[in-house]
């Protein structure tokens, strides 16, 4: 493609280090779509003849049909998907193929193709995340009043509902979707027509190609357009953040599935056994989601470091932009699907959860709050009194509400019989009815709002 200027061909090492076709063949659909938009515009602007434009468009359809049927041939000599496609087009239609690249460079071509690919990836992730949210909301609806211990420092803190806990992940995913949507809006400008770096002298209609490819507008600066990979970084940043959320949920399911917790039985279909220990059912899918988060963060780091010192405009380093994005996307899509399966298929052991909440002095705050509310005790003093009650219950090996009234009154005179109504886990949860709180009435409101957003029911 550039042989005119060279006395000898590339060495084997040059061919190998230069070839991006092994991975950028994933862009073939976007490359054909962008070429078709470009040549249609060249035709309507009179830059190439109507017959040649038609021959090129038909030829591109034929190349696409071949790729669809047989895959993309990996010819390293042709370097990348752009040259592989153009050379096949030349084989098929002959001379007119040479006019396709008028007013275009692989620099604006790859920037355009890759944006289209990332845009599709975002749409795919968003659909997967919506499914995950539906699974979370569905399970939360079943468990709006199921009691479990809420933790801080992984120590039993206050009772919450499982529905409330699951809806916390709904919120995280809601923010993830908004980050992806934001990235999509920002990246939706067409680099096509920026050419190598400086723009072109041909009378291209950049608005027409932008519109044909579903972009909102053409990019405003050709130097920026061919050297910008913010769209890929935006995708990876949103992906990394999302992967962190999935990893936290995976970690909780792993912990909950352990025998000492026993809060959940994970679906067999997303677990594995042990080749030596017959009793084992391992949460491998959840562990891999937790592991994949590390790799996705690594992909983000890789592209950030690739881009950080590059002068304008295009440098070949930027060919390394695709593998981390492709890798991260594959890992993320699979992680989302795995978590959706685990959320919808898990058997939550609400009896064990309730028992754990009852055993951990989770309602100690309710005793202190009761003293403040009913006996006008200052909170700091109430905290101290409650601490003494917990100490006594612990020494006796019983729950807080199993202490006798006499024992409680020995700690503080102002306690009376009514306190017992406040010390049950159900009363504790029902009392936390502040906006966003764990009371079933509030959780059901959160779920109802989410169902409207997600078009459920
Ligand atoms: N294979 C290249 C890439 O993926 C295409 C752009 C090549 N441009 C160039 N000036 N060598 O980045």
UniProtKB/TrEMBL annotation:
Coiled coil: none annotated. Residues 4-298 form the Fumarate lyase N-terminal domain. Gene3D superfamilies: Fumarase/aspartase (C-terminal domain), Fumarase/aspartase (Central domain), Fumarase/aspartase (N-terminal domain). It comes from the Bacteria. SUPFAM superfamilies: L-aspartase-like. Its EC number is 4.3.2.1. One of its GO terms (biological process) is L-arginine biosynthetic process via ornithine. HAMAP family: Arg_succ_lyase. This is Argininosuccinate lyase. It comes from Tsuneonella dongtanensis.
